[in-house]
Amino acid sequence: TAMALLLVVATTLLMNMVGLSPALGAFLAGVVLAESEYRHQLETDIAPFKGLLLGVFFISVGAGIDFQLLRDHPTFVASAVLTIIVVKWLVLFLVGKIGKLPLPDTLLLAFSLAQGGEFAFVLLKYAEAEGIFDSPTSQSLTAAVVLSMFCSPLLIQGYFKWIQPRFAAVRHKREPDKIDDNESPVIVAGFGRFGQMVTRLLRACGLKPTVLDFDAEQVDIVRRFGMKAFYGDASQMDLLRSAGAGQAKLLIIAIDDAEKALQIIDCVKKEFPHLKILARAYDRIQAYEMIHRGVSNPYIETSGSALNLGIEALQVLGFPAQEALRASQLFKRRNDESIQALAKAYMELDNSAYVAHARKWTYALEKTLQGDIGGVNGEAVRTLESPALIKVPD
User: Of the chain's two ends, which shows fewer C-beta atoms within 10 Å, N or C?
Assistant: First the structure.
């Protein structure tokens, strides 16, 4: 930290000695430090000073505004503010187009960064010192930059309030795709990171599931990789019917909207009672809701990868590979049992009673695994095939 501060101060003094702006020296020192291999540690070390120094900086900027100039030349300052915002907006819009960003992202980029930057103060001071601008002009332009910064949150709020909803409305007005292939026994609703893995596994095994997703951009991307996907809202029963829900054997719900997922389950249970449902749950609470609606075994989205990491963690800590695998399998079995048991408690009991019930299951799970790994009270190690599961205390 001391060396970083020394570098900043020394570079600043050096720039001042050769007649350049001290702020330029601080900027150059920051660029050097940003490329250092210690940059992440430096960020942590200087974090307590960051907010304080930013506050001092902006207070000094505001204190440096000559309000008499604003009163004397309001038209010039307003024109400068408008010019800064319009020119930067156009440049950023062009950058977004060259970078092939989607139009909503391009507009967000342009509206977010259309204000003048802090480095403008450095340039204006330097221009004034070199005689490019006289002091009144430099002060007026500094005020224009500050006012453009003041306009920045207003521009961003305006984008989210009036412009972004128009793009959302256009996307939702798109008609659902016509599904010409509805003979698959599997329908997958949702093609995010969870649905992609499931679909790829099914395709690798020779199945061709019908994929539905409400994100038009995602559907277009999937099609470029040769997969059949259709745009539409899986909560609409007409769409599911056209996708072959009447003849399909299985519906996999992999969408990340918890309320929409529960809505789909309710509707499918009424319209297609023969259809087996496998569903992704975001957490245990959503899993409880799904069990209450008749989905026998919801899959919490991170549980599989978390268990795999836990297996490797146990091996790193000295557990034999087979013992680590057995522990994870036993944990999964007991955890699944606890979800089924606690789902009813969550629906029927108040919060304190549910917490007490959950703590009992946690205690039982820990005792079961500890007994299986090393034995309890001198007992021999238990095998997974016939574990002596500890009952939940009353």
Answer: C
